[in-house]
Amino acid sequence: MRTMIARASAITLATAALLAIGPAPAAADPSGTWLRENGGARVRMAKCGDAICGTITWLKDPANTKSKVGQRVFFDMKPNGADAWAGKAFNPEDGQTYSGKITLSGSSMTTAGCVASGWICRSVSWSKVN
Hints:
alpha+beta, 8-stranded antiparallel beta barrel, 8 strands, 50% strand
């Protein structure tokens, strides 16, 4: 009987400790339309299955519009921390797919395409349009 009471107490304490810690912070939602820092492109981030994907919706340079508008450039982006997402990033300029990262801070988003297990990344800043 004493052993059962000790186990019940231990389980109660463990449950209380887990509840005090609370759930992991949810990833901020990158959904919406984002304008690239140089003003040359807009990307719409939206749910696609259980992930977030990003599609080019507008390009400033009309010469590139036909071939790239509608092209998906971010895909399989899943929460990777409170304000971060990770997945794949496609660069239409070189035709390569990289490991991708999204970091959110208020109405700003930074995207990165990385190689070498994330050691070498190229980042782009975006501001939220809507």
